[in-house]
Structure formats: structure tokens, C-alpha cells
Amino acid sequence: VLSVADSKRKRTTFTAIQLLVLENKYREQQYLSRIDRARLAVDICMTEKQVKTWFQNRRSKDKDMQNSLPMN
């Protein structure tokens, strides 16, 4: 029987270059097509799933930042 700790996957650590490329691409395009996602993943040595998750998390971060701004 596996415990919760055994089944947890490790957190991905991105390199500075990967983050720079991801942020630059995000500024251009907040939503990637499957083809763009696949190309980007190959270019920066990541899986498509990692790129997809990074973009989802980045959009969520933007949304959270927008919601925390005071309304005028």
C-alpha cells in the first residue's frame, strides 16, 4: 500500500532560461494552440504537460492579481 507521501510527484523546478522564454511567450500569447505548445516544449526541453500547466498557473496568477486590485 502506498502512502500519500509515496505517491506525491516532485515539484518541477524551471531554469532561468525556461522561465524567461515562458514569460516572453505568455506576454505575446496567453493561450497556446496544441502545435505552439508542442513546439515550445521541444524548444525549452519541457514536456507539453509542463508547458500547459505553467500557462494555466500563470493565467491563474494574473487573475488573482486582478482580483486583489482595489476597485475605484
From TrEMBL:
Residues 7-66 bind DNA. Keywords: DNA-binding, Homeobox, Nucleus. Residues 5-65 form the Homeobox domain. The keyword Nucleus applies. One of its GO terms (molecular function) is DNA-binding transcription factor activity, RNA polymerase II-specific. Pfam families: Homeodomain. It is found in: Nucleus. InterPro entries: HD, HD_metazoa, Homeobox_CS, Homeobox_TF, Homeodomain-like_sf. GO terms for cellular component: nucleus. This is Homeobox domain-containing protein.
